[in-house]
TrEMBL record:
An example molecular function term from Gene Ontology annotations: transaminase activity
Record's protein name: DegT/DnrJ/EryC1/StrS family aminotransferase
Database matches in Pfam families: DegT_DnrJ_EryC1 (PF01041)
Entry similarity comment: Belongs to the DegT/DnrJ/EryC1 family.
Keywords from the UniProt entry: Aminotransferase, Pyridoxal phosphate, Transferase
Entries under CDD domains matching the protein: AHBA_syn (cd00616)
Phylogenetic placement of the source organism: Bacteria, Pseudomonadati, Bacteroidota, Flavobacteriia, Flavobacteriales
Length: 357
């Protein structure tokens, strides 16, 4: 069975050698040496702002909303994974959707100002598929209206925009290290923030502890464990190579699908991308369903990332988001991972060509 992705597993011996260090100390969590070493290595590898490793990529979103004191309405994108919206609702705020750009698939910055009300406290947008939002325009809007900016950068491991880490934009960025993501710790994630927010975010992710007996304020438990960090330390040395092979696979798709009746992801200029996903946008849902069925018949399972559009979630007062609705019905992510066999790649390509050429 071929899935949209396959988790990269480092050689087990290398993972075990790192785990041994946790065994020697008898220390499994509470920011042990492995979590701290992973943070240091990630910060230097990514060249990013302050980082706090966490237990997944969703809690950093919730902690960011809570720690920035956001209330009322948060402007967000309907085209993302459900965690972007659910975090807003979970923290007692109201998501206000702004439709997406039809080619970049990120929130349409030209429509944000019209959605701002006296209740708006922030913009929470997703760099979907690792494609950066219009961060400069969004920051200017936020500054003008006194709003905070959070980026769900779950897909953005090692993405650079205008020469620096994409995690450096906005007040807070979050990343996921889930096993299906480019870089992973099994389950895991991180929060990146400007230096002035670091303490607040840190306390919030560890029960508000300020030492053993004092509490700085309210907190929750979002700490990454040593077992998770060990996986990260074992995977990290392979990431550059993983990206290189993904780049090659993406180039093969690009060349083969160029003449087909479909659109490929348009990357924002000045982006150094990470090849995290390979979305294709068919010209009808019918074509997508036909391709999906034909691939499933030969045991290949692409995924409808992201469907349905988040404004249609059952706990949301539905609003019309024509572009996100249309894109989400027509977008399919093709299998993309380093060990993807060439024969399989050829099968995927010929199947799509047979339906869309
Ligand atoms: C994967 C993902 C998340 C959630 O990350 P977890 O580590 O699974 O909690 C959040 N947002 C987006 C856009 C994602 O793709």
């Amino acid at each position: 069975m071929i899935n949209v992705t396959k988790t990269f597993l480092p050689p087990q011996k290398e993972y075990q050698a790192i785990l041994e260090r946790a065994w020697e100390r008898g220390w499994m969590t509470n920011r042990g040496v492995l979590v701290q070493e992973l943070e240091m290595k990630l910060k230097s590898f990514l060249d990013s702002f302050h980082i706090i490793n966490m237990t997944n990529g969703t809690l950093p979103l919730q902690i960011a909303i809570k720690a920035l004191g956001l209330t009322g309405e948060i402007i967000t994108t309907p085209f993302s994974y459900v965690a972007t919206t659910s975090s807003i609702v979970w923290e007692g705020c109201v998501p206000v959707y702004v439709d997406i750009h039809p080619e970049y698939l990120t929130i349409d910055e030209s429509k944000i100002e019209a959605a701002i009300t006296s209740k708006t406290s922030a913009i929470l947008a997703t760099h979907v598929f690792g494609n950066p939002c219009a961060v400069d325009v969004i920051q200017a809007i936020a500054d003008k209206h006194g709003l905070k900016v959070i980026y769900d950068a779950a897909h953005c491991f090692n993405v650079k925009y205008k020469g620096q880490s994409i995690f450096n934009y906005g007040d807070v960025s979050t990343c996921s290290f889930h096993a299906t993501k480019l870089f992973h710790t099994g389950e895991g994630g991180a929060l990146f923030c400007k230096p002035e927010y670091y303490d607040r975010m840190f306390y919030h992710h560890n029960f508000g502890h300020q030492g053993q007996e004092a509490f700085q304020g309210l907190g929750i438990n979002a700490k990454m464990s040593e077992l998770q960090a060990a996986m990260g330390l074992a995977v990290l040395p392979y990431v550059s190579n993983i990206m290189e092979i993904r780049h090659k696979v993406a180039s093969i798709y690009n060349a083969a699908l160029k003449g087909c009746d479909l659109d490929l992801l348009k990357l924002r200029p000045e982006t150094a991308w990470n090849y995290s996903y390979y979305p294709v946008i068919f010209n009808s849902e019918h074509a997508l369903l036909e391709v999906k069925k034909a691939l499933e018949a030969i045991n290949i399972y692409p995924r409808r990332y992201f469907y349905p559009s988040l404004n249609l979630l059952p706990y949301i007062n539905s609003v019309s988001m024509p572009i996100a609705n249309s894109i989400s019905k027509r977008v399919l992510c093709l299998p993309l991972y380093p060990e993807l066999d060439e024969a399989i790649l050829t099968k995927i390509i010929t199947t799509i060509q047979s339906i869309t050429l």
